[in-house]
């Protein structure tokens, strides 16, 4: 039978904020799922199967929470699948869901990713005192900051690049009603003057911690064609890819990981992209610390080595630039960890459907969604387009 | 959605908006083989890395060579001096931390090891720490040595000249392993496959 | 669907406590064994998928370091499910259906020993209505057993027969944790642990790991004489709340068995993931498995119940029997969640 076509026919997300105390965990995932269903003009009964993704279960204090969410997600008597690939999970969850359609197993699959970090103590969840393991003296930022320093040194990048990325993404976030951070007073100087938490990473160059969920409805070619005939544009999935490499290996490059580049090359090959800089209209990539924008621009083939920061500096990645990056405001504005990857994938799909509202890139016909996880060793990407592959 | 009709008895009651349910689970961890061998070295103030036959030296060892995917049965003592390969300066009182701000958390490649460890740098102002700087381990007093890597309190400068040629993973490959030179994607062949010996367009950074 | 087969299966000896090894050290023999049996390395594998859960390990992202067991260098195509490895196997099967890769490696592992398993499993329950009560997993299973006995369809003697047969069959399974030859009377003479369940109605707590190699079409035929072909595979879920389902039947298993085509031919062997004796009776009925089927010749989960792994072991045990020629057509089943909440059914067949 081979690989069948698949498209995104429904997209939903919650309002993201530090604490969504107004909804339960079930209420949070249903808020996103119901919006995706409404967008697809479907009901729970139309869905064949669901795929749920989220990051560590310690965040909410519930082990394998998809089990207790099964009925809230309308899955009684249906298949429900749970993915966990660290921070890339939102992306890999969407890919697993897409493959259920591509394999011809199901026609309409709901996929949901979420995190409700306020339910538990997130710092506690990540800082359980495990004997015998080397102490992490400075948390997640302390892990990534040395790698950012290596990039700056390698690329000879000037200090203000990280500030420019943070400013751009926070300004983009102002156009996104679902974004967690809406910092109307943000400025170059306010970012520059914010506390240098993990030198070279400033406070205002880091992502927030959010409650939120994202949901997609994936449909077969038949389902997507019917939506298109009804005037609801599908986002056709032109390629998906995942790569993993070891966390701590002697040879791996933590600045420009080989796995990230191989993942990009694979997904471009599937989509027929030979020159990503020219062939891609916009990119939504996983940037939890601002410096990751230039790093990923190089790792994903949008810039020559050492030149990623020059695209940022020249405004190429701005919303009105030649290659807009993180139109939604990205992870720097919204970070419900388990959903963050799917939000990237969803934004890419919204762009090619023309439904991105104030953060729409004019004429976007092909977009890339990107997620990474762990210590930059897990990667998930997709390419979506307005055109059927 | 159907309208929810509450029974009269609770119609005017303040709704419950959240519940707090403390949970505690107790775990009893065991160290495993590789970590036990490592910690046995620590109590003797020796830093023991491990390797698989034909593999690289990993410290602290975790039991498997992550490139080969094989056990690491060979103990290899590494030096207590090494080179800073990168670092960050922390200006935040991190949760549970008792460090004086600012402090430096660094990646340090010990002589004889193939993977940097993450540890603290002290006895030097934070703004003078640099990549390539030579540092040495400072242990707790003998009476306080315990089977934990924290028995090494921190690293401090040795005063030797900087090692400007220190191997930084990825950088032995020119522009980096996952970079696109001339718009061409890298392939698996850019690195040497540790099992087949094939591939590797450079010396894999070992030079 | 594309023809895909299990061509190799390996597991570690199942034990109450594997104190002397960390998780990656415990896992390596299973992964390396499964690959070596078919003369393969990770370089021959198109996709790798694993199953495990952080709550057993007691630390977040615990699966990250166990990936070292396979040596993902150069980088590999890989995924992880926070589910039993049987579902990791399902994800790999879906991936193989796309026709882009021909081989896959699936593994699962768990060390339940660091924590108090019956208490750890309470964290799966609804965090508002059930979790705060800390109902341990044995007591919850006992509620189900009581409901089943109260229907009058089965007796405590029927439960005892399952226990006795399973532990006796396990004598032939070198990896089993519990194996003995005792009579029905011995079983029924035991005190209740949580009435109506006796200790021998319950599974042991187990540390262990398992791995499977998948191959498609000619690749499978070139590797082994008799691949165990997948003829159907499906999984279904029900609400977690015990009051929302009839605990004495397993509707999700019935649907999965129907979709997988269990009834389309004779079933020589079935490996059923039933941690508690009464659950085997519920599951046999749900899958329509009758007298001519050998049930759990390995001894099943009553003889070794590595969390997140026991379901994958069921698939491996059936595949081994098909590859060995002692069975032509078999059924493997995996379960997850309290009281058989979620179930996977797979039909495997050998060439004749």
How many strands appear in the DSSP assignment of chain C? 12
CATH superfamily of the domain at 4-115 and 205-223 in chain C: Thiolase/Chalcone synthase
Helix content of chain C: 25-40%
By CATH, the topology of the largest domain in chain B is: OB fold (Dihydrolipoamide Acetyltransferase, E2P)
Instruction: Count every helix of chain C, treating DSSP H or I runs of 4 or more residues as helices.
Output: 12
* Tertiary shape of chain C: globular
By secondary-structure content and strand pairing, the structural class of chain C works out as alpha/beta
Sequence stretches where pLDDT stays below 50 over 5 or more residues of chain C: none
Word description of this protein:
The complex is a heterotrimer of chains A (389), B (207) and C (352). Chain A folds into two domains: 6-120 and 211-229, Peroxisomal Thiolase, Chain A, domain 1, CATH 3.40.47; 139-203 and 238-385, Thiolase/Chalcone synthase (Peroxisomal Thiolase, Chain A, domain 1). Chain A has twelve helices and ten strands. Chain A has helices at residues 25-39, 89-102, 122-126, 139-155, 161-174, 188-192, 221-229, 258-271, 276-279, 292-299, 308-313, 337-353, and strands spanning 6-13, 49-53, 80-83, 108-116, 198-199, 211-220, 235-244, 282-284, 366-373, 378-385. Chain A has a nine-stranded mixed β-sheet with strand order 3-2-4-6-1-7-10-9-8. In chain A, helix 2 crosses helix 12. The mean pLDDT of chain A is 95. In chain B, 5% of the residues lie in helices and 24% in strands. Chain B contains one helix and nine strands, in the order αβββββββββ. In chain B, the strands form three sheets. In chain B, strands 7-6-5-8-9 form a five-stranded antiparallel β-sheet, with no helix packed on it. In chain B, strands 1-4 form a two-stranded antiparallel sheet. Chain B is extended. The N and C termini of chain B lie far apart (68 Å). Residues 203-207 of chain B have low confidence and may be disordered. Chain C has 352 residues and is α/β, with parallel strands linked by helices. Chain C has a domain at 4-115 and 205-223: Peroxisomal Thiolase, Chain A, domain 1 (3-Layer(aba) Sandwich). Helices cover 33% and strands 20% of the residues of chain C. Chain C is built from twelve helices and twelve strands. In chain C, helix 7 (156-169) packs across helix 11 and helix 10 (251-260) packs across helix 11. Classes of the chains: A alpha/beta (389), B mainly beta (207), C alpha/beta (352). At the A-C interface, strand 3, helix 2, strand 7 and helix 8 of A face helix 3, strand 3, helix 4, strand 8 and helix 10 of C.
């Amino acid at each position: 039978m081979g690989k069948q076509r698949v498209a995104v026919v429904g997209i939903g997300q919650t309002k993201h904020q530090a604490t969504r105390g107004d909804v339960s965990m079930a209420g949070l995932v249903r808020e996103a799922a119901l919006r995706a269903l409404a967008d697809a003009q479907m009901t729970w009964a139309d869905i064949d199967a669901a795929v749920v993704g989220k990051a560590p279960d310690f965040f909410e204090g519930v082990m394998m929470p998809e089990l207790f969410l099964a009925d809230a997600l309308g899955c009684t008597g249906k298949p429900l699948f749970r993915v966990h690939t660290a921070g890339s999970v939102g992306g890999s969850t969407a890919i697993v869901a897409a493959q259920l359609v591509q394999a011809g197993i199901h026609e309409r699959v709901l996929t949901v990713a979420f995190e409700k970090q306020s339910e538990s103590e997130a710092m506690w969840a990540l800082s359980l005192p495990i004997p015998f393991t080397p102490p992490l003296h400075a948390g997640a930022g302390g892990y990534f900051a040395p790698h950012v320093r290596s990039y700056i040194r390698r690329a000879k990048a000037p200090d203000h690049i990280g500030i420019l990325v943070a400013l751009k993404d926070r300004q983009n976030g102002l156009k996104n009603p679902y974004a967690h951070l809406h910092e109307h007073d943000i400025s170059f100087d306010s970012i520059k003057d914010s506390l240098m938490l993990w030198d070279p990473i400033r406070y205002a160059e880091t992502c927030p911690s959010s409650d939120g969920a994202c949901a997609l409805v994936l449909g077969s070619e038949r389902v997507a064609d019917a939506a298109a005939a009804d005037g609801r544009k599908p986002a056709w999935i032109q390629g998906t890819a995942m790569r993993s490499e070891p966390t701590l290996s002697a040879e791996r490059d933590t600045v420009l990981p080989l796995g990230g580049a191989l993942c990009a090359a694979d997904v471009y090959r599937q989509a027929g992209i030979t020159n990503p800089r020219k062939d891609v209209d916009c990119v939504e990539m996983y940037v939890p610390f601002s410096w990751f924008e230039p790093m990923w621009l190089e790792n994903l083939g949008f810039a020559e080595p050492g030149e990623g920061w020059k695209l940022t500096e020249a405004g190429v990645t701005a919303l009105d630039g030649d290659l807009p990056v993180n139109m939604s405001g990205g992870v720097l504005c919204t970070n419900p960890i388990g959903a963050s990857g799917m939000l990237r994938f969803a934004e890419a799909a919204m762009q090619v459907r023309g439904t991105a509202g104030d953060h729409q890139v004019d004429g976007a016909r092909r977009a890339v969604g990107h997620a990474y996880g762990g210590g930059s060793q897990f990667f998930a990407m997709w390419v979506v387009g307005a055109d059927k592959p | 959605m159907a309208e929810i009709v509450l029974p009269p008895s609770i119609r005017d009651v303040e709704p419950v908006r959240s519940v707090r349910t403390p949970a505690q689970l107790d775990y009893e961890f065991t160290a495993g083989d590789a970590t036990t061998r490592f910690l046995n070295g620590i109590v003797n103030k020796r830093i023991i890395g491990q390797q698989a036959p034909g593999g690289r030296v990993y410290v602290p060892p975790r039991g498997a060579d992550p490139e080969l995917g094989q056990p690491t049965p060979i103990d290899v003592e590494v030096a207590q001096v090494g080179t800073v390969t990168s670092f960050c300066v922390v200006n935040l009182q991190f949760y549970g931390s008792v460090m004086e701000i600012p402090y430096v958390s660094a990646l340090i490649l010990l002589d004889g090891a193939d993977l940097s460890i993450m540890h603290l740098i002290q006895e030097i102002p934070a703004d003078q720490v640099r990549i390539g700087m030579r540092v040495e381990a400072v242990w707790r007093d003998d009476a306080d040595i315990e089977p934990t890597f924290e028995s090494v309190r921190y690293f401090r400068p040795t005063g030797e000249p900087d090692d400007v040629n220190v191997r930084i993973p990825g950088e032995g490959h020119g522009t980096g392993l996952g970079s696109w030179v001339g718009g061409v994607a890298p392939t698996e062949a850019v690195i040497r496959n540790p099992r087949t010996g094939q591939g590797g367009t450079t010396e894999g950074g070992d030079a | 669907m594309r023809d895909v087969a299990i061509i190799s299966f390996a597991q570690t000896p199942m034990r109450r406590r594997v104190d002397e090894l960390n998780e990656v050290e415990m896992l390596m023999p299973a992964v390396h064994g499964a690959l070596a049996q078919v003369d393969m390395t990770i370089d021959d594998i198109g996709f790798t998928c694993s199953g495990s859960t952080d709550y057993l390990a007691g630390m977040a992202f615990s699966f990250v370091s166990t990936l070292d067991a396979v040596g993902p260098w150069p980088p590999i195509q890989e995924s992880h499910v926070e589910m039993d490895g049987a579902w990791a196997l399902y994800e790999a099967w879906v991936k193989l259906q796309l026709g882009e890769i021909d081989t896959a490696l699936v593994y699962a592992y768990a060390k339940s020993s660091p924590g108090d398993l019956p208490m750890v499993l309470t964290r799966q329950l609804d965090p508002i209505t059930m979790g705060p009560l800390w109902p341990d997993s044995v007591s919850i299973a006992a509620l189900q057993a009581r409901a089943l006995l109260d229907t009058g369809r089965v007796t405590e003697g029927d439960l005892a027969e399952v226990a006795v047969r399973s532990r006796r069959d396990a004598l032939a399974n070198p990896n089993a944790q519990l194996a003995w030859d005792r009579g029905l009377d011995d079983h029924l003479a035991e005190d209740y642990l949580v009435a109506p369940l006796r200790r021998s109605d319950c599974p042991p707590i187990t540390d262990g790991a398992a791995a499977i190699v998948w191959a498609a079409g000619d690749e499978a035929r070139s590797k082994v004489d008799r691949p165990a072909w997948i003829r159907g595979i499906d999984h279904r879920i029900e609400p977690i709340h015990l009051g929302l389902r009839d605990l004495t039947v397993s509707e999700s298993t019935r649907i999965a068995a129907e979709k997988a085509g269990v009834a389309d031919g004779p079933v020589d062997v079935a490996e059923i993931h039933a941690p508690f004796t009464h659950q085997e009776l519920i599951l046999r009925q749900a899958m329509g498995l009758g007298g001519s089927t050998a049930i759990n010749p390995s001894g099943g989960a009553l003889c070794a119940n590595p969390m997140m792994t026991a379901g994958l072991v069921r698939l491996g045990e059936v595949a081994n029997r098909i590859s060995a020629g002692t069975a032509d057509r078999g059924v493997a089943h995996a379960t997850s969640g309290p009281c058989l909440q979620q179930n996977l059914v797979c039909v495997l067949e050998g060439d004749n």
